[in-house]
């Protein structure tokens, strides 16, 4: 085989041009999808609101409409059209009832025209909806457009009460100028924008959760281990998604314990256990108790697994239970924390050894 000629020095230039082209195309694709999605959701909200106005002026009427739509649209289009999302679309229309927008024709051409009226991504409008004062919401929207804030910048400014602070400031121009500057973690890459859960739902695409190979393998091993402890654990799923307000979370493993008649939420952490892990678990438990628990079931229990290198810990979250008798029963029936921690440590060692052998470092 003849030797291939050496790649010229011009290769670096052409590679940089192609990378820039692909990045620009991905960014444009994300903007286009977001604009169409936002316009579509506004139009859905408009139709819901106008249908309600033609019907009975009762709260129950709107709730029944949303309930039926959520059931039918979810059956036909999959995720993204549950009750909470439809209420959000209705609220979006009511918060932005622009008279010029109302003159836009319906159908595909109407959606295309509408898309130019909403320059921010849908996730930004969802975040803005959480701002209750209209004047504050208008301020954040204006500044997000003027300064080109990413959703992370917008979220940070709202959480820091930027509107209230600037109202009290004697140097408003300086504050506005400073707010234009982005922090290192504010940027949203085209890949992140396209993989936004809102976009994935709108396009009905599978939501792939990015994890390290080690964490993936540990979760698989721990699933098998818990199922092998007996027939009490019934596996319900992994990487179960949930949304609280405008934030997305994923639960690593979800089981149902047959004897305790309760859900068991398992969360794997790469580092040591800390209070933030406990707080997040209690967030999951409260959500599960409100949205996933059946009437005849006991409150859910959480299992936090910490798999820091050389250390393994397991902690049950039981203080959300309604009484101490129930908590004592849980502690009697659930597997011992030390047993699970030891298995976690063994699993990590075996998996790391296999990775070393596969990579030729052993």
Automatic annotation (TrEMBL):
Q: Which domain of life is it from?
A: Bacteria
- Taking the record's annotation, the residue ranges forming a coiled coil are none
**Which molecular-function annotation in GO is an example for this chain?**
nucleic acid binding
Which InterPro entries did the record assign? Answer: PD-DEXK-like_domain (IPR053148), tRNA_endonuc-like_dom_sf (IPR011856), YhcG_C (IPR009362), YhcG_N (IPR041527)
Q: Which residues form the YhcG N-terminal domain?
A: 17-165
One of the Pfam families matching this protein, by short name: DUF1016_N
The YhcG PDDEXK nuclease domain extends over 192-340
Q: Where is the signal peptide?
A: none
Q: What is this protein called?
A: Cytoplasmic protein
